């Protein structure tokens, strides 16, 4: 122990009680993690969110483009666009429900 420092000096010696406590804590954390079986994978969450956004945007843009083309070819403005937009919304929500129902690996 240094002359100028109060208290005990634990830098030089390893306390067996602290080592045993560390080991028990490590074991308890491992048991708790295996009991819960939940591992949070943030990369999977980001990937799933990106898939949902792309499904939503892709379905809406694709269906709007097809509806606009139908209106231009057959002269049915604005009904082709409206019908295809509603169909695109339905497809997008179906894909979102399917993607969000996937179980984590």
From TrEMBL:
Pfam families: ATPase_gene1
Organism: Sphingomonas carotinifaciens
GO BP, sorted A to Z: proton transmembrane transport
Name of the protein in question: ATP synthase protein I
Keyword Iron: no
Family, similarity comment: Belongs to the bacterial AtpI family.
InterPro entries assigned: Atp1_alphaprobac, ATPase_put
Transmembrane regions listed in the UniProt entry: 52-70, 76-93
Swiss-Prot/TrEMBL keywords: Hydrogen ion transport, Ion transport, Membrane, Transmembrane, Transmembrane helix, Transport
Cellular component terms per the entry's GO annotation: proton-transporting ATP synthase complex
Function: A possible function for this protein is to guide the assembly of the membrane sector of the ATPase enzyme complex.
């Amino acid at each position: 122990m240094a002359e100028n420092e109060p208290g005990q000096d634990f830098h030089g010696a390893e306390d067996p009680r602290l080592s045993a406590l560390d080991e028990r804590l490590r074991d308890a954390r491992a048991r708790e993690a295996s009991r819960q079986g939940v591992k949070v994978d943030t990369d999977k969450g980001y990937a799933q969110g990106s898939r949902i956004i792309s499904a939503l945007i892709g379905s809406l843009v694709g269906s709007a483009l097809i509806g606009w083309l139908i209106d231009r070819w057959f002269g049915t403005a604005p009904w082709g666009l409206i019908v295809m937009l509603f169909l695109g919304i339905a497809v997008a929500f179906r894909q979102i429900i399917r993607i969000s129902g996937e179980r984590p690996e």
